[in-house]
Amino acid sequence: MVVVIEVDRRHVGGVVEALLVEGATKDDIERLGKYKFRRIGDFDKQNGEIQESFGGIMTECDTDSPIEHVLPREDAECCICLCAYDDGTELRELPCRHHFHCTCIDKWLYINATCPLCKFNILKNGNQSGSEEV
Ligand SMILES: [Zn+2]
Ligand SMILES: [Zn+2]
């Protein structure tokens, strides 16, 4: 879906300055993998002190043979809102293998159909030409 926002059309005397923003549709977004996060904690005892390190497992939803990814602690957070994933949170993984809160990335993708981290365009995933013009 291409959203055309016209900027100050009247003021520039008939010259249309358009800002193109390419957002994804609901269908596009729902085609992406949906995962559920399960938190796992490691407790290491060192010198009598308990060191907690929380990572987790993200498990694919809506499939008979779900894929599981184990996330180290530093990876178990959403780069959009910078919050750590909570137990039971729904996540979405993009084809570039970056993952975010479902709610965060959905909002983002409606406006801009690219990965906020690596600019991978989820709409161009179908025909991989190899060259990405940005
Ligand atoms: Zn988030
Ligand atoms: Zn990415």
TrEMBL record:
It catalyses: S-ubiquitinyl-[E2 ubiquitin-conjugating enzyme]-L-cysteine + [acceptor protein]-L-lysine = [E2 ubiquitin-conjugating enzyme]-L-cysteine + N(6)-ubiquitinyl-[acceptor protein]-L-lysine. Its EC number is 2.3.2.27. One of its GO terms (molecular function) is zinc ion binding. One of its GO terms (cellular component) is membrane. InterPro entries: Znf_RING (IPR001841), Znf_RING/FYVE/PHD (IPR013083). One of its GO terms (biological process) is ubiquitin-dependent protein catabolic process. It is found in: Membrane. It comes from the Eukaryota. SMART domains: RING. SUPFAM superfamilies: RING/U-box (SSF57850). It is a multi-pass membrane protein. Residues 78-119 form the RING-type domain. Keywords: Membrane, Metal-binding, Transferase, Transmembrane, Transmembrane helix, Ubl conjugation pathway, Zinc, Zinc-finger. It holds the Pfam family zf-RING_2. Transmembrane segments: none annotated. Pathway: Protein modification; protein ubiquitination. It is an enzyme of class 2 (transferase). This is RING-type E3 ubiquitin transferase.
